[in-house]
Amino acid sequence: MHISITDRNKLLNKDLRELCERRLDFALSRFESSIKKIDLVIVDENGPRGGVDKACRICISLHRASDVVINEKAEDVATCVSGIAERASRTVARALERTQQFDRTQKEVHESI
């Protein structure tokens, strides 16, 4: 599973980059066979002024389903990445479940013919 991380404002040091990869790998590894690629973009919207301004955007390309795009904001990068990883796991599970339900109904129709 290839994870591409883009840091627009140079917020990530080595430890934070490893945390991002570890959290996304842990949250999405069970879907590895269904995922083409993962793009994570991290931005500091307000610059050095502080506040709830660290934004993460993840785009997950799936093989048999439409892309999953999720946005998250938090005060620090670690919280933002943890939240987006959790939401991404639930969203990918729902997207793949919808595809499997569709596949089952198609098989049942073909079997009865």
UniProtKB/TrEMBL annotation:
InterPro entries: RHF-like. This is Sigma 54 modulation protein / S30EA ribosomal protein. It comes from Gimesia aquarii.
